[in-house]
Amino acid sequence: MTGAISIRREAAISFLINAALSLAFFTGTFGLASRPLNWGAPGGLAFDFIPQSAAVALMSALVPPLLARRHLSGRPLRPVLLRALLLAAGGAMLGGLLAFFTRTNAPIALPAALILKLVYGGTLGALVTTVALRSLLRP
After folding, report:
1. 8 A C-beta contact, residue 125 and residue 60
2. CA–CA separation, 29 and 45 (whole Å)
3. pLDDT tens readout for residues 23-73
4. In 3D, which of 91, 75, 80 has the Cα closest to residue 128?
5. Between the CA of residue 34 and those of 21, 22, 66, 111, 119, what are the distances in Å?
6. CA distance 37 to 136
7. In whole angstroms, what separates CA 10 from the centre of its chain?
8. Is the dihedral of CA 119, 121, 126, 130 positive or negative?
9. What per-residue string of b and e applies to 72-94 under the rule 16 or more CB within 10 Å gives b?
C-alpha cells in the first residue's frame, strides 16, 4: 500500500464495477430471455469481446489512476492518459483475438454466456487496474 492507495482494493473494486457494466451491456445487447446465443452471426457473441475489452481496459486504466493521482504529488497527467490509450488498444486487440478464436457455429446457453462475460469483464478490469496503478506508483 502506498499512502491511501491499495492496489488490491482498487483491483477488487474494478472487478465489481466492470462485471456490473458487463451485465448492463450484455442485457442491453442480448437481453435476458433464456435462449441459445450464437458466437458468430447472427448474434455476434464473439464479436462483442472487442468493444467490451476496449471499454473495460480504457476505463480501468484511466479512472483508478486519475483518482490515485490526487494522493500523489507531482505525478503528471500525460503518462496516465497515454497508458490508458495503449491499454485500451491492447484490450481491443485481445478482444479481437478472442473474437477470432471463439467464432464457431456451436451455440451457448444465455446463462453460461452471461457468466462468462461477467467473469471476463471483471477479471480484465482488475488486471488492467493493477497494471495501471503499479505503473503510476513506480518511482
Report:
1. yes
2. 9
3. 999 999 999 898 999 888 767 899 999 999 999 999 999 999 998 888 887
4. 91
5. 20, 18, 39, 7, 19
6. 40
7. 14
8. positive
9. eeeeeeeebeebbeebbebbbeb
Residue-by-residue DSSP string for the chain: -BTTB-HHHHHHHHHHHHHHHHHHHHHHHH-SS--EE-SSTTT-TTTTHHHHHHHHHHHHHHHHHHHHHTTSTT--SHHHHHHHHHHHHHHHHHHHHHHHHH--S--EEHHHHHHHHHHHHHHHHHHHHHHHHHHHH--
| Beta-strand pair 108-109/36-37 | antiparallel
Quote the cell numbers at residue 75: 505525478
Question: Dihedrals φ, ψ of 71, to 5°?
Answer: -90, -10
Provide the grid cell at 135: 505503473
Q: Tell me what pLDDT residue 1 has.
A: 42
Buried b (16+ CB within 10 A) or exposed e, 13-41: bbbebbbebbbebbeeebeeeeeebbbbe
Q: How far is CA 136 from the centre of its chain?
A: 19
